[in-house]
Recover the amino acids of this structure.
């Protein structure tokens, strides 16, 4: 039997074994990375909202006198 | 800078090789067949492992924005109503844009008319009749001195606004963009000098207004591009586009490269809008959902939907702080969403046909909607 073909099969078997191990490690890495990224990203979005909430007119509402689109109430003549 | 998850580096299996053209000894022939079979088997196994890994990645739905946002205070009741109604278009309103002065609005319609309004007084300041019907896109120039529009004419034209209300605007019209299909959206960049367009021809393009020269084209969508939005200026030269291929693509304006792509919607994406910080964007689709995509996490982080909402979303925009997402729907309503918690905080009625376009004013005091009922409404 040809030596290089035997080597090829051994090499291929080694590769698959390596892949099995790597897949296990990678799976954990991927889980950790994704959770980290999403929770960090979510925290940043929340922080931005919080920082700017007070200056968001549609969120907090502005008094009629300050919003040009809200008409001032007509005076009631008693 | 957070790094995206890199795909695994898959070393390739040794290629099958023929060691002999014709077997000189019969046993070697059988062995060669066996070797090839073993190699094929190993290849299949590695493919199976690859697929399993991708499946594991896909299962990671459990961390979403609304879970992280559980500790945020809930929003109270909202009272928003129509404060102005702009009447004057003779047919469906298809698009609108605010001027930076927070009071003027440009709108375009199926009847070929483009109107500039003073939203405070509801007076019409300018009107132009386009040579085509279905003017699907319009935009105000940052200086407030011009408007751009286009649609079935496959072009984007710029009209300088004259102080003289009697002057015929059509006379000074400048043809800037030329596509091979309808113009679906247009936007000036941060100056009056450049315009970004999207088209039914599947491309987006950046144009020099003065010369009409094509500066950059953006290829990557597999079908009509329906919408685009420029990143807030602090975050650099990128924009996002959405199309009939259900994809939202983020592009680098200088190189023309697509740098990120998101495909989770189940139908056409009609509207895309950046979150105020530039780190995320929202989309609205014919699949009746709005979604939020975070650019650094490189994935969808929220879906805004309800079983009772079955009509498509035509247009979305954020309030100033990014806490509220307004969506205009084909069932004539506007749904207001709590971006962080994923819940609906209000539903607004008033239009008598589809809401086709929606934009929050530059200072966030109001938002404007345009509808197939021929009117525009200002809400606050």
């Amino acid at each position: 039997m040809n030596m290089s073909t035997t080597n090829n099969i051994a090499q291929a078997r080694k590769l698959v074994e390596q892949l099995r191990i790597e897949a296990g490690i990678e799976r954990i890495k991927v889980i950790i990375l994704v959770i980290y990224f999403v929770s960090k990203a979510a925290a940043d979005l929340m922080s931005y909202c919080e920082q700017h909430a007070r200056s968001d007119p549609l969120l907090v509402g502005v008094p009629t006198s300050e919003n040009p689109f809200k008409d001032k109430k007509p005076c009631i003549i008693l | 800078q957070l790094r995206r998850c890199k795909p695994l580096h898959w070393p390739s299996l040794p290629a099958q090789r023929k060691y002999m053209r014709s077997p000189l000894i019969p046993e070697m022939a059988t062995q060669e067949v066996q070797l090839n079979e073993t190699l094929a088997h190993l290849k299949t196994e590695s493919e199976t492992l690859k697929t399993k890994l991708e499946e594991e990645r896909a299962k990671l739905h459990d961390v979403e924005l609304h879970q992280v946002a559980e500790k945020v205070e809930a929003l109270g009741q909202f009272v928003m109503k129509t404060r102005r109604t702009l009447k004057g278009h003779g047919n469906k309103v298809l698009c609108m844009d605010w001027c930076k002065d927070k009071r003027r609005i440009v709108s375009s319609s199926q009847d070929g008319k483009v109107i500039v309004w003073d939203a405070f007084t509801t007076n019409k300041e300018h009107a132009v009749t386009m040579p085509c019907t279905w003017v699907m896109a319009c935009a105000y120039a940052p200086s407030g001195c011009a408007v751009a529009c286009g649609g079935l004419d496959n072009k984007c034209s710029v009209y300088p606004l004259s102080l003289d209300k009697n002057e015929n605007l059509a006379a000074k019209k400048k043809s800037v963009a030329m596509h091979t299909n309808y113009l679906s959206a247009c936007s000036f960049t941060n100056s009056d000098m450049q315009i970004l367009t999207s088209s039914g021809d599947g491309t987006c393009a950046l144009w020099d207004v003065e010369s009409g020269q094509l500066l950059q084209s953006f290829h990557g969508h597999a079908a009509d591009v329906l919408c685009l939005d420029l990143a807030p200026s602090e975050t650099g030269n990128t924009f996002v586009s959405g199309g009939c291929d259900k994809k939202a693509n983020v592009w680098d304006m200088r190189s023309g490269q697509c740098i990120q792509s998101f495909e989770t919607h189940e139908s056409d994406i009609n509207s895309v809008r950046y979150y105020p910080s530039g780190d995320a964007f929202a989309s609205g689709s014919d699949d009746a959902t709005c979604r939020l995509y975070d650019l650094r996490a490189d994935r969808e982080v929220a879906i805004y939907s309800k079983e009772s909402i079955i009509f498509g979303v035509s247009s979305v925009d954020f309030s100033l702080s990014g806490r509220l997402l307004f969506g205009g729907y084909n069932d004539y309503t506007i749904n207001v969403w709590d971006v962080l918690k994923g819940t609906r905080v209000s539903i607004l009625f008033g239009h008598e046909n589809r809401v086709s376009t929606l934009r929050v004013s530059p200072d966030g005091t109001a938002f404007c909607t345009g509808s197939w009922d021929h009117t525009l409404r200002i809400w606050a």
Summary: Confidence is low (pLDDT under 50) at residues 1-24 of chain B. Chain B has two helices and 28 strands. The CA atoms of residues 290 and 304 of chain B lie 5 Å apart.
